[in-house]
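Record pair follows.
FIRST:
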Amino acid sequence: MPAAEPAEASNLPPAQLLLEIEESAFKDSRSYVKALSALHGAGYALCLDGDGSADISLLEFASAPVASYRLSRHFLHLLLEEGMHGPARRFLMASMGAAQSIGANIIASGVDTPEVVTALQLVGVVLMQGEALAPVLEPDQGPATWAAVIKTR
């Protein structure tokens, strides 16, 4: 996909878009970092979506121009199953440190229970999305709901 396509399809400038890129979409890390660099060079903010399953080294991750890293729902369930002292928590803490060192945010998606919210808050994750925080809206409900929220603040 040429770098201009998402902006053209949305009729928005690249600077107003955050592209979520599945890390598993790339077979080798060189093509991955090259593609991310091209998209970033076109003005897009990038979010790496995955759980460390791609073949990309920490050094390559550090050189990739990402604004955020999204944790998967599967990973969050592992965090709860293993408890706050298991390997998932250690991986999360390492991921948070790596993201912070390159100026990227950690975003937890699939936050569907109060227990997950609490666990994430305990380890310092502040950006979350999921049904525990807000219900899923139908496309036509969004603008009216956002306007109501904005008016109450």
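SECOND:
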Amino acid sequence: MERLSGDSIYIEIHKFMDALDPEWRRQDWLKGFDAELSAMKSAIGPGSGGRVLDLSCGEGAQAIPLAMLGWEVTAIDINPDSLELAREHARERGVRVDFRVGDMLVANPQWAGAFDWVISSRAVDHLTDDESIARVLDNAYAALRPGGRFYLS
């Protein structure tokens, strides 16, 4: 039996849950939407066109509310299936988010100093070693403009 590690275990769990109940993720997402919108409004506020990078965005639970608040959002996740659901949620809400397949452990030099905010919600706690956590924090810091902020939950 192949041993799963890192994000691959979450991809496999999602596949298993999808086989049991294809609607489980949509229902879960909808239940939490209003709370996420309120949390993003309180923590980050209106965007006025500023830029946000969402590391490990999943199905867009924070990215979509931030776009609704006027932020220009780039959101990455390692799981293409989650990103497809995120795109559906964004279309349903009438907002644009630049969703991309990406790994929060890998720096993107094009994003150096490009964002007012970098956020990561319920993702870093899934990392199992100090080196990976440090890499995410370094990547977040590198993506921030001078005076930018990092939201970690």
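COMMENT: The longest helix spans residues 24-43.
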